[in-house]
Amino acid sequence: MIVGFIGIGTRGWPMAANVFRAGHDLVVYDSAAGRAEHFNAEVGGRAAVTLADLAGAEFIVTLLPNGEVVRNVYMAGGLAALLAPGTVLIDMSSADPSGTAMLASELAAMDLVLIDGHDAAASHRAQPLLSVLGKQLFEIGTRQ
After folding, report:
1. Residue 137 domain-assigned?
2. What is the pLDDT of residues 77-111, one digit of tens each?
3. Which of 6, 40, 92, 106 suits 67 as a labelling partner, its CA being 20 to 30 A distant?
4. pTM of the predicted structure, to 2 decimals
5. To which H or E segment does residue 29 belong?
6. 3-22 confidence digits (pLDDT tens)
7. How many CB atoms lie within 10 A of CB 6?
8. How many domains are contained in the chain?
C-alpha cells in the first residue's frame, strides 16, 4: 500500500520507520526544512517536497501538534482536494474530538474517510497499517 506520513518529529519518525520496514511504499512530509530528506537518507522511503507529492497515497497518517494544524494541512493547505476518492486518513495528533468530528464530516463530503471509529470498512482496510503503528489496537467510542 502507498502511505503518506505527515509529521516525522519525535513520535512520527519511529512510526513512519515502522511503516517503511513493514514493506509499505512510504512518502514522508514534514514542515521542518530537510527533515523528510534526512528521513529518506537514514531510513528510506520517499521525501515529499510539497503536500502535492502525497496525492497518490491510499492512506495518509498525520501526527501533528494539534487539530488546527491537521485542519490546515487538509483544507487550507489543499491536500484534501488532491486526494483520490476513498483515501483513508488516520490522524494520530493531539486533537479536540469535536474538531476532529467536524473535520471528518467535511472530508466525508469530499469522499475521503477520516478514521474515527465509525467506518468499519475503512478501519478494516487500514488494519494492516494500524498494526505496524502500534502493538495494541483499541477501538473506542460509540458506533453509529
Report:
1. no
2. 999 999 999 999 999 998 888 999 999 999 999 99
3. 40
4. 0.91
5. strand 25-29
6. 999 999 999 999 999 999 99
7. 30
8. 1
